């Protein structure tokens, strides 16, 4: 712990569960944490947010799956993963044995899938909560993404909250690909979400001018990286203004402590760092230290004092 960290209280919480750092991984960008162990003390960060897990193993979408874009990247992985059985047998025990907190991301194509996953995770050692990836197609509604419909999104969250361990905070991960993100945020919190993860990737497309075809095997993909940060900040700002008591895990293009500070000032009480780890696997520790220094330089005694500070009246 540095002198700056002793001067600024960096503690925060996921729901009602305290964590020592406001910096977490972002789902899908570092698998289940093993890849980062040589570069980051995983017990010192807020938590490892796992890849989204489904009921059954999934091979994912066809290749190519990634494409570089200006100030970002597109990914079309397709939620490849071991399924809940593999997660429970291999990945979560590995994290728990090392004292690493995990926020498990769950995904499904039916409301019942999400509920079953939440139930399977009850009482599992090391799991501090659930992040519900509702940016999945609802097969019972012509493939419409759950997160784009307040009613469908709230149905998922209500089912997860009813099935989940009462000690597990439930965070709904919201999509920016909507007209009114506040209405979705209000619907899922009314349905029982303890907090919100914001934002998921933006849907994008890249075409190769030589082949004159889409670059990604899955045609479209999720845009992440610094290019989406202004959109993510706008979403966090709007939701915090409308629902100031709802905890927000902010994400979208965070590469530095000053980037993270913007999310905190907009209303996030914690942040996830994702795409940045591809070229700097030590980014989580660095962002924590830079954020602590930035808070100290601005006279904040604690992280919590800075949450939503940009919303203060102008004359203040």
UniProtKB/TrEMBL annotation:
Pathway: Pyrimidine metabolism; UMP biosynthesis via de novo pathway. NCBIfam families: PRK07259.1, pyrD_sub1_fam. This is Dihydroorotate dehydrogenase. Transmembrane segments: none annotated. Belongs to the dihydroorotate dehydrogenase family. Type 1 subfamily. Its EC number is 1.3.-.-. It comes from Blastococcus jejuensis. It is found in: Cytoplasm. It catalyses: (S)-dihydroorotate + A = orotate + AH2. Residues 19-295 form the Dihydroorotate dehydrogenase catalytic domain. Substrate binds at residues 51, 75-79, 133, 200-201. The keyword Cytoplasm applies. Its main location: cytoplasm. FMN binds at residues 27, 51-52, 133, 173, 199, 225, 252-253, 274-275. The keyword rRNA processing does not apply.
């Amino acid at each position: 712990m540095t002198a700056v960290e002793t001067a600024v209280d960096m503690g925060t919480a996921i729901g009602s569960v305290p964590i020592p750092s406001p910096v977490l991984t972002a789902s899908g960008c570092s698998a289940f944490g093993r890849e980062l162990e040589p570069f980051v003390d995983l017990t010192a960060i807020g938590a490892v947010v796992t890849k989204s897990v489904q009921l059954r193993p999934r091979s994912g979408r066809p290749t190519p799956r990634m494409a570089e874009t200006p100030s970002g990247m597109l990914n079309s992985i397709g939620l490849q993963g071991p399924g809940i059985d593999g997660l429970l047998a291999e990945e979560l025990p590995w994290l728990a044995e090392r004292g690493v907190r995990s926020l498990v991301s769950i995904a499904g194509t039916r409301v019942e899938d999400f509920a079953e996953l939440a139930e399977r995770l009850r009482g599992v050692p090391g799991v501090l909560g659930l992040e519900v990836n509702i940016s999945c197609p609802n097969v019972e509604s012509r493939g419409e993404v759950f997160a784009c419909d307040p009613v469908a999104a709230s149905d998922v969250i209500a089912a997860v909250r009813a099935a989940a361990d009462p000690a597990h905070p439930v965070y709904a991960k919201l999509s920016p690909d909507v007209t009114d993100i506040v209405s979705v945020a209000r619907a899922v919190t009314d349905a029982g979400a303890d907090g919100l993860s914001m934002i998921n990737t933006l849907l994008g497309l890249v075409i190769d001018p030589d082949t004159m075809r889409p670059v990604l095997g899955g045609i479209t993909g999720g845009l992440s990286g610094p290019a989406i940060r202004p959109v993510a900040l706008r979403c966090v700002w709007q939701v915090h203004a409308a629902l100031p008591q709802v905890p927000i895990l902010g994400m979208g293009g965070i590469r530095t402590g000053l980037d993270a500070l913007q999310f905190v000032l907009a209303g996030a009480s914690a942040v996830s760092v994702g795409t940045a780890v591809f070229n700097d696997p030590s980014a989580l520790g660095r962002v924590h230290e830079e954020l602590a220094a930035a808070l100290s330089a601005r006279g904040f005694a604690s992280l919590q004092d800075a949450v939503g500070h940009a919303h203060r009246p102008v004359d203040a």
